[in-house]
Amino acid sequence: MSLDRRGFLAAGGGALVCTLAGQKVREDREADLERLALDVPEPDAVRTGARAAQATVSGPRREYWLVAEPVRWTIVPNKRDEMMDAAVKGRTTFGAYAYVAYSKDFGRPLGKATIPGPTLEAEVGETLVVHFRNRTKVPLTVHPHGVFYTPDMDGAYKGRFSDPGGFVKPGATFTYVWECREGTEGVWPYHDHGPMDPLPVYKGLFGFLNVRKPGAPRPDVEHYIAFHAFLPVATGLKTAYQCINGRSFTGNTPTLTAKVGQRVAQHITVMSDDFHTYHLHGHRWRGPDGRVVDNVTLGPADAYSLEFVEDNPGRWFYHCHVFSHLHEGMSGWYVVDP
Question: Sheet containing 173-179: which strands, arranged edge to edge?
Answer without folding.
Answer: 93-102, 61-74, 127-134, 173-179
